[in-house]
Amino acid sequence: MILVVSHYQKDINMKNLSNQPCLIARSLALVGDAWSMLIMRDAHAGLTRFDEFRKSLGIAPTMLTARLAALTDEGLLEKRRYSDRPPRDEYVLTEAGRDFLPVLFAIGAWGRKHRSGGNVTRFFDAETGTEIDPVTIDRETGAPVGTRPIRIAAPE
Amino acid sequence: MILVVSHYQKDINMKNLSNQPCLIARSLALVGDAWSMLIMRDAHAGLTRFDEFRKSLGIAPTMLTARLAALTDEGLLEKRRYSDRPPRDEYVLTEAGRDFLPVLFAIGAWGRKHRSGGNVTRFFDAETGTEIDPVTIDRETGAPVGTRPIRIAAPE
DNA sequence: TGACTTACTACTAAAATCATAGTAACTGAT
DNA sequence: ATCAGTTACTATGATTTTAGTAGTAAGTCA
User: Fold this and answer.
1) pTM recorded for the entire structure
2) Is B138's Cβ below 8 Å from some Cβ in A?
3) ipTM greater than cut 0.90
4) What CATH number has the domain bearing residue A65?
């Protein structure tokens, strides 16, 4: 299915992921862990506050603090003060954060095909009510990704 | 952008992710870490052998053993003997593994938009040579995902 | 015979994670 | 005025995971 192997990285470790030429590796620096992904999912579902995330996920507050700070630093979430007295902040999706939705859908679509069974959560268009069935295609040709061989090209 | 919040999970922790009703959470049980994602990327790039993965990723062999075993258990990779004497196995993508490519592309597409800068690895159609620019759309309407509000519905 | 390859396992140190508890700064009800 | 409740955290220590290096088993090749 895939043809060319290239040395598109050197000396990967979990600390220098963001310096890799590969965009997948570089993106995984931020969201390459399940908590960050689940926080992004919940943010898309409309959660904004610390305690909402904490209760939804059952995540330890230390973890949540660290993840929210990282996602904020990296520009996927924005910390916004919604009350001065008492000081209260909420975390809302930035444009980069909203653009992350296709990743969540791709994961969900894969899960629907290969991990469903029993009751599963589903996604709907909020206005029309029709279920969303996401496919990834090439913008130019419209061909679904995965049907044709690909080549990975190293930079320069 | 998103309207309905639902209690689509209870008592998440990193051990029971695969029992969650949410397909995203359930899928993250397998690939919710950067190493597994990078192994899947490399598998799509044509790597099959233990040492190929080890050298490409610089991953500790203990980690690699564990990840390959998990991905094999979960049906994304298949362990295949390619030599009896000496006994040698390789890891090849199953259909479920190949279906994972859109997730990698969605992550790459996000990275291209929000994390590029400097040289980056790019993806091409191996036959036509044209660059691939992946978009996630709804199969029915053809509308790009992320442009319309979504609703997340809990099971039953 | 000895160097080399492949696919690992063993071991230990370092780091991350988990759960629980506690704190700061308030609000709102009695 | 006091006291429970809320929100957004930080502190702490036990447990678990990960990283890195070294070593091993079963061969091949010269």
Assistant:
1) 0.87
2) yes
3) no
4) 1.10.10.10
